[in-house]
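Researcher: Structure prediction, please.
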Amino acid sequence: MPENQYERLPHAGDFERETGTEVFYLAPRPVPTGMPAFSGQNLHQEANEVFLDVGAGQASVEFAARAYIGSVMTLIILFFFASGFGAWLRRYKEPFVDGWIDGFSTPPMWGFIACIAALAGYNMFRIIRNLGARSPVRFNRQRREVALVFRGEAPVYVPWEEVIACVSASQIVTQYAVMPSFALMLGLRNASSGDVYWVTIPGGNLSLVVSEWEAIRVFMEEGPAALPTPVLSDEEFQEGTVAYFHMCRGVYRKEHWWPRYAFGFLVIQFCSGWTLPCHIAQWVNRRPKAVFPQEVLDWSQPLPDEQQANPSEALLKESAEIRKAFAKGQNLLDYYQIKFAEPATESPAATG
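Model: Predicted structure follows.
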């Protein structure tokens, strides 16, 4: 499992399964995945000929805010109906409406709900604070190195071919149902301390998560011209934005009968804040992050061709072997003989 320290770095193709979570490593040794480069993180806007900046997407903040709001609203709704049921049982002793109002306005229960709301607010504050304390991960393709900066700390530099990348597959409870959850996890190992710093980028399914990594990989190996450009507008393309929310609402309305749309989308989304979590996520995304110190800015300057780093012989050899397997019709999971448990059956297909 992804850990904060490693005695031995994993390798592309390693697979781990533990307590309902499966992890498939794509790097170190960032070999081709056979998947098309595709990104929901607007990577094409954050790249130039020298470096690419990657940070946590808005979707994770939006989901956290929606989960906390939904939890508090669920308590209030349950309390509302429980007090109504209690008033119905006492209807022969006192008027039903008066009993319902008295029950619903019980101070101890509202004190409990206030404590839960305060705890949720504190957790959101911690999430927002932690996101602001860390810079984006900067991938420098000319130096073939990766940099990460925490506010007030020295930069951490990691060789590109030692970056840990893995796909995590598990089950989570969402506002819709119990669903499979996938994420791309990037680990940067501090050579001096052995600590590993993780950045998590959630994705919709296994193929999308692998494609997210492939977009980073092709930038480092081929340059910014290889990055994908979204077909949709930027906000519609980014999960966690208001535009994305309304696009999903429109699709849900077209694809489902109106009772299911009303109770399966409108009621659930209204009780979890409607577009408020999206506004929170976009506000967090606009907040200043930890800035890169002058040392990293100097490190980010272009290098003459003769000073630029080249791929290792080991990476070139393994990449060539994998491409031969793709040409024979295998995909990445076939090559490493990996099989995810259901429902994570969307295998990365070979694209040549």
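Model: Strands lie at 15-18, 21-27, 51-54, 137-140, 145-148, 156-159, 164-173, 178-189, 196-203.
Researcher: Thanks, that helps.
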